[in-house]
Amino acid sequence: MSGNSDPLTPRAKLAVTAGKAAAAVSRAAGRGSGSVIGGRVALKLDPDLLARLVTHLDVILVSATNGKTTTTRLIAEALRAAGPVVSNALGANMPAGITSALAGGSDARYAVIEVDEKYLSGVARDTDPKCIALLNLSRDQLDRAAETRMMAEHWREGLAGSKAVVIANADDPLVVWAASSSPNVVWVAAGQMWKDDAWSCPSCGGVMQRPGDDWFCGECGFRRPTPSWALTGDHVLDPHGSAWPIHLQLPGRANKANAASSAAVAAVFGVPPQVALERMYQVQAVAGRYDVVQFMQRDLRLLLAKNPAGWLETFSLIDPPPTPVILSVNARGADGTDTSWLWDVDYTQLTGHPIFVLGDRKLDLAVRLEVANQQFQVCENLDQAVQLAPPGRIEVVANYTAFQDLRRRVGN
């Protein structure tokens, strides 16, 4: 659905112009990309701007606790085979950031939009999406996010009666329960490493049974749906049973799962799996994640992990011991100020790695590592950690603001 007629009213055009000016001032002042402040200014001048900006676009929304920025990027690459794409590629995923991104997409055909879990229902209401991808739900930012079942309930209510095609992970009971209110769901077997938020049935509260890869509630009968798409090893199985190889430059099983969901989304818009997956190979890094950078004559691989599920996936892809590992944790507003989630992470998986700890909450992390019987050193900053690290590439794992701090320090 594309068209050249200008959908914007004079007020909307003024709002877009003012937003871009505010963003430019913010960038010039060295305060980041300016996308959030630009969007806030624009929405203040025209509260309906988000809806106006998408009238000529096929909108795809992507939401999850983990993997939404990467999956948004993979879908955007795949859909470029079918036409121009506008996307909030840098991860500004609340209404202001989304509005800023869309303001630059007047010539696009598709809008691939990452949405913070808490804002999914509202953004879906404003943008009338053709497709919504739901990847996973787990605990995150405990001081400001509702617990996971409440989040699933918000999704379920927001999706009820939606005309969108919902691409949903059949292996996450919370996602399945949320998506089941939608009349048009395509199920993807994308896997679920982190299961600690889905042991009770979201439908009735009973205990979930998990034989092998299957799951069901023995009390109410709520169970895993039969998937149309599936990740199996290094291949994606499509609804016809054809297996398509996944070749990614991004590491780990989680990114193969993201690619499987992305291929299912691309197929909704007529992009064949082979074409979609070939285009995904172009993605080398996502907003600095997975980048290998040179710093103090050493190679550092930058990895983002924001919550227990994310740390579990990240530990599965780091190089084996004795590879040195730097861990950095902050607890600023964008991270969530509650660090109790550190106790849910299994740090015994780092046994054998030389570990170096930094960040605003390095002492919280040090206590947790001590309890897990890990050998580590607390460092004042990245420079000291790199100096102390033994030879070899260094794996650097950080939560959100700690990751941004590290990127600035290494000039990434």
Explain what the structure shows.
By secondary structure, this protein is α/β, with parallel strands linked by helices. The chain has helices spanning 10-28, 35-45, 49-53, 68-79, 95-102, 120-127, 148-159, 173-179, 253-268, 273-280, 308-315, 362-371, 382-388, 400-410, and strands at 58-63, 85-87, 110-114, 131-134, 165-169, 185-189, 208-209, 216-217, 229-232, 235-237, 243-245, 292-295, 298-304, 325-328, 355-358, 376-378, 394-398. The strands form three sheets. A nine-stranded mixed β-sheet has the order 2-3-1-4-5-6-9-10-11, sandwiched between helices. A six-stranded mixed β-sheet has the order 12-13-17-14-15-16, with helices on both faces. A two-stranded antiparallel sheet has the order 7-8. Helix 4 packs across helix 9. The radius of gyration is 21 Å and the shape is globular. The chain starts with 9 loop residues before the first helix and ends with a helix.
List segments where confidence is low: pLDDT < 50 over at least 5 consecutive residues.
Answer: 1-5
Q: Provide the structure class.
A: alpha/beta
As a percent range, the share of strand residues is 15-25%
Distance between the termini: 37 Å
How many DSSP helices?
Answer: 14
Number of strands: 17
Global morphology:
globular
- Can you summarize the main beta sheet? 9 strands, mixed
Output the radius of gyration. Answer: 21 Å
Helix content: 25-40%
Mean pLDDT across residues? 92
Adjacency order of strands in the biggest sheet? 2-3-1-4-5-6-9-10-11
List keywords for this structure.
alpha/beta, six-stranded mixed sheet, 17 strands, 17% strand
